[in-house]
Amino acid sequence: MKPKVIITREVFDDAIDYLKHYCDVADNQADVPYTPEALAGKLANAQGLMCALTDRVDAALLAAAPQLKAVANIAVGYNNIDVPACTARGIQVTNTPGVLDDSTADLAFALMLATARRITEVESYIRNGEWTGWKLKQWLGVDVHHATLGIIGMGRIGQVIAKRAAGFDMKVIYHNRKRVAAEIEARAQAVYVSLDELFAQADFIILQMPYSPQTHHMIGAKELAKMKSSAILINATRGGVVDDKALIHALSNGVIRAAGLDVYEGEPKLDAGFLQLKNVVLAPHIGSSTEATRRAMAMTAAKNLAAALSGIVPPNLVNPDFRRSEVIS
């Protein structure tokens, strides 16, 4: 008998077809989000779960899923999953790293360019019929080329952002929990600095650290005050690493020049204060949202799940210690 798998959100048909070779699949192509109670009911006799970053996989859900063996997240981040609780129950957790690096880096750069050149402001200006002609001092933005880019989080995505910055002749500085290897620095043409040095020097700051209790509100009022008043902040990583209320205050009071955001605290809700600001570019968490990348993410998750339920170590296993855990009944 094939193991039963629950897919929580709409995915591409090829990912479902792939899983059907190995599993009994219950999909959700209607894309109506499950409540925690509904998902718990569906997992009562399931061995596998393919979920999205909007699904909370916590101890309460796991308690309702006694047969669960693997959770495949369609995302590189997995702060929506209680990994220690899964490990304690002998449940494998996987993610989808690598396949979204370039698309996410593209989006971060797009936000930086759009914010620097005030693209959302000028588009509204034209759409509202307010443009009456060219003026020398009209809609002045700031240059990206030859500016100093500070990257906080020099993982895979941070490195490909640095690669793009080279094409704009930017000076790249970075801060990371641990300094990366010299060969990575050389390839990225990036210089390691302290966090305070990065705040003081950078014209643009792109955040690429994962969200965790340790990075919650890593960028708050104190950190924003250390930045240049002309600085632009880009957050395309995870909501919660920035204190949104502190950022709104900083943008409203000239503490920093502007911000470009793809993620927010408590999304899809966002602080209404952002909507009152002209100096912020807003996107709805679309960092990896190209068809090719999202297809690759779904298929990667499907392959991870099929491998895990076939007794094969999945290629993107987050918690290899699960095998040494005692399963809690």
Structure report:
The protein has helices at 13-20, 36-42, 59-63, 83-88, 101-116, 119-127, 156-166, 182-188, 195-201, 221-226, 244-252, 291-309, and strands at 4-7, 24-26, 48-51, 70-73, 92-94, 148-152, 171-175, 190-192, 204-207, 232-235, 258-261, 280-282. The chain has 329 residues and is an alpha/beta fold. The chain has two domains: 4-99 and 291-324, NAD(P)-binding Rossmann-like Domain (Rossmann fold, 3-Layer(aba) Sandwich); 101-282, 3-Layer(aba) Sandwich (Rossmann fold), CATH 3.40.50.720. The strands form two sheets. Strands 8-7-6-9-10-11-12 form a seven-stranded parallel β-sheet, sandwiched between helices. Strands 2-1-3-4-5 form a five-stranded parallel β-sheet. Helix 5 crosses helix 7. The protein is globular, with a radius of gyration of 22 Å. The mean pLDDT is 96.
Count of separate DSSP helical elements: 12
| Strand residue content | 5-15%
Q: What is the count of structural domains? A: 2
CATH superfamily of the largest domain: NAD(P)-binding Rossmann-like Domain
Structural class of the helix and strand makeup? Answer: alpha/beta
Q: SSE string, helix = H, strand = E? A: EHEHEHEHEHHEHEHEHEHEHEEH
What integer value in Å does the Rg equal? Answer: 22 Å
Between the first and last Cα atoms, what is the distance in angstroms?
23 Å
Question: Would you tell me which CATH topology of the largest domain applies?
Answer: Rossmann fold
CATH architecture of the largest domain: 3-Layer(aba) Sandwich
Give the integer mean of the pLDDT values: 96
Oligomeric nature of the chains: single chain
Helix content: 25-40%
* Name of the level-1 CATH class of the largest domain: Alpha Beta
Outline, from the CA principal axes? globular
Largest sheet: 7 strands, parallel
Strand order of the largest sheet: 8-7-6-9-10-11-12
